[in-house]
Amino acid sequence: MRFLQIMRPLHWIKNVFVFAALIFGKKLFGAPNEVLLAVARAVGGFFCFCLAASAIYIFNDIIDRRTDKLHPEKSKRPIAAGTVSIVAAAVLSIACAVAAITCSYALLDRFAVVILAYIVLMVLYSLSLKHLMILDCVVISIGFSLRAMAGAIVVDVDISPWLVICTFALCLFLAFSKRRSEIAQLQENSELFRKTLGGYTPELLAHMLDVTSGLAVVCFLLYAMDDRTFLLFGTNNLVYTTPFVLYCIFRFSALIQQGKFSDPVDLILKDLPFQIGFVLWVAACIVIIYGNKLGF
Fold this sequence. Notes:
The chain is an all-alpha fold. 73% of the residues lie in helices and 0% in strands. Helix 7 packs antiparallel against helix 8. The longest helix has 32 residues, at 32-63.
């Protein structure tokens, strides 16, 4: 159970970005065998990223085991608490990384390249890049963009620049949200826990959240109104899902800045209004994209 805990299965929800291309690449409807193959490959890609992410989570927990003891929640993690040895954790981390690369190569060699790039990038993040203010959040956002790109590769659709840009903007917002929640929770101990938190202030992060949330919404609007989107879907009606986008982003921002959740993942998993808004947005997108095939 402790070994499963250090793999952080609850954080695997972050890998749902792999499925974005499945929806927006119009792979959900068509010949049954083609749809099943696309879904199976996307699910396989999702689990490959889960393994890769777990390898990094464990590696990062080993690196941060001393500072994690200063955190009220992370101090309870098995590695920081000393209930899982560093040697055992390192073996599991390597095993997860090797399994992720091997399985991704079995799916598609180009997909394996993205997985490997993600692992290398996040190892660099754990070792040094996370200590550089602002760049720490940029690197995290690039990691999520790699997830979206990998999803497009594994289901064999063109990588849309808008998919990458929207993912990056949204995840930059999520990364700054995490920093804001850490400061709210740790307060005067924040700089001791994470060096870059000494450079962030609640006011600065509030400004960054405003800018990145606005950027994410604008990127989505530009994508929805783009000529390429019309050629692909035969409609620009995705723009009418904007109220759901605004609601989810604004509610997320408000709850994080109020300090009601200690981690963005915690918010996503526990806040019912946010979950309803997100599900309605996904459902609306599916109806608009596949409306003709669904008989609407």
